[in-house]
Amino acid sequence: MMLLSVLASAEPNAAPPFFTLLTVVFMGIIAIALILAHFRQSLMAGYFICGVILANCGILDHIPNSDVSIQALSEVGIILLMFTLGLEFSLDELKHLRKTALLGGGLQMFLCTAVFGLGLHYVTGMDLSHSLTVGAIMGLSSTAVALKSFQEFGLSGTSGARMALGIALFQDIAAIMLVAIMPQIFGTSRDSWETAFNIGAAVLRGVIFLAAAWLIGRYLLPRVMLAVARTKSRELFTLMVFAICSGIAMLASLLGLSIELGAFTAGLFVSGSYYSHRVLSEVLPFKDLFLTIFFVSAGLLIDINDLWEHIGNVVVFATFVLAVKFVACLVAAHFLKIPGRMGIMASTALTNVGEFSLVLIPFMQEITPIPALVTANVYAIAAVSMGMTPLLMKAARRLTPLLVRIPGLKLKNERMSVETLITRVSGIKDHAVICGYGPVGRKMHESLGRYGIPCIIIDLNADTVKSLLNGGHLAFLGDIQHQITMELASIRTARLIAFTFPDPNPALSTYMQIKNANPDITVIARAKFRSEVASLHHAGIVNVIHDEEETGAAAVRLAKLSFDIIETGNGGPLSH
After folding, report:
1. Cα dihedral sign for 350, 352, 356, 362?
2. Domains of the chain: which residue ranges?
């Protein structure tokens, strides 16, 4: 960090302050993230820690207006987070998990809100409405951390993972509701009737906004997205995605609603279109970048000296929060009749205080004051708990044989079922992934289909994908070079992936990722020139179709047929 301080302080006029700020932040993030990655810890906690270090080592004092710049970038990250949440939100998925979400999630949020809210009210003297709201915010967990932890332990298809997903979906809905109602609850009005009127007016504005957004999403967006997709311009599609997100978010702002709510609604309406997967793949890199800056900005709010003075309170508070969230989820697991071991694993995965809490606390601070000690504790607990989740799950996995024997837990102590012993294989497997649906891709699809081999087709042509979907085929509008597209194509369980277009770059850029995910998969690539064949072979791709070579071989074969030349086994002519 001494080097970063020197870089930040030397010749302040040599570079714009904004550029200097980004350089310092990115270098700090990479340094800390590499250390945490070496110890297999959560990178999100690393971003927060980076902000804490930058805020307390004096680096940012040499950069003018650094706090304003970081705040602006973090707000963009929050908007994109809400937009991607809307894209990933599935009403069908919620319907499938409605019991888990409504019963489990509702019970967990109620218990956490009540215990945390009443506790803060009596300990800190906060107004009850404020303390209950903060309690609800602390009840939110990190969906990404929880589900990723299940994946790392090979338990992504278990009842515990489904319980965690269902509760997380309910928490996401609760977070959206908090964004919508907090400005009305904590507005300037102190009169109960005026507050009720403000809430009613907000509901009316919300209805108007949803109606307008629905009309735009139903009639305007499909035509615009189709027109842009037909241009086959990647940069234009990316610009369109940001225009949709910012446009509908601005519409919400004009109606007196939060921009975050508008961004979520924009993602929700796009999620039902043919283009949702491609939109998600385009926006994820930008969201990750800006959201990283958001976590850094949250860390900037922590004063190490103040935190150290109250370290005892922080430790007690953190232990209390983790214990309450764990017990609340165990109670939900009991009512959902989740097997004991999986209930404990799911409860452990959801003990953390998630990224939405880091979003909602400053959002609430803009509306109404919150004690500084409370906000500092929430920030610290969020960072530590997200980082500790994988370690806690590892410990819980070892302790569950003992925990399920405790009578007071009243958990269903049954033998581990097959689904809790082995990761269930869900969906397609032993299939072919065909990238590109031109003449070669179509021919391969038809040929493999005759042998009953399932295929997933990935293409950038909106009309092609729409036609395939209407025909009952599995197809995605997307780019195989994006990680999200690979996951949608179930690369881990595929037997073959074929790049059917004569551009070697997608195969070269994704080969290592594909092989890391599935070492046994067969990769087929196309190349137009001999130099491209050499590049593909050098990368490790053995099965390369050389267009010029194959065309030359076909031409020679046809020429021989025209002269009635039949070759012997050693290649010599048999007759003429």
Report:
1. positive
2. 66-191+294-401, 432-575
